[in-house]
Amino acid sequence: MNTDAMNAPDSGANLSSQQSVLLDKLSSRLVHVQGELGSKDLTIRDQEADRIVKNHVLAGSAMGLVPLPLFDLVALSGTQHNMLEQLCEHYGVDAGHQRIRAALIAVLSGSAPTLALIGIGSSFKFIPGIGTLGGNATLTVLGGAVTYAVGQSFSKHFSQGGTLDDVNADKLGGYFRKALEQGKQFIKQRQSSKKLSAS
Known about the structure:
It is found in: Membrane. The chain is an all-alpha fold.
């Protein structure tokens, strides 16, 4: 009997086993690479969302310098609406003017004291001189901080698969209040760095 013929099935089985092991290793490596790419995609997406928010925070702060009372509030509201539109587009969330407006109201309604301060800051501008200065200072910080908090809240919501239709005002409102404090710090740090660079 030919021993080569007897060994042929063994070598075929051995080759098949090696191919299977190699295929398992390649599959495992592919899953790992896909995970790394997915994680990098998320990081890039989050960085872009952060850029959108920070650009609008700067615009929101600038609205505090608008000298006309109440017009500054309309301009601030427009800035936040535009930011939310851009975030919706960035995350692929269906948006519309009414849906964005309703979502903003749902989140902001949980922060009545802050909104009252913004209203008072705007109304100070009716008083010439010191009232205008006080109103500008209040709105520069609070307008930017509120815009920051709105942006961060919706970025988090959208990144977790949320839409404008499933906004949970309590859940998002809790995050909004935390982000509001971070926003105030962000604005104050920017103001401090501007003063240092100016001197």
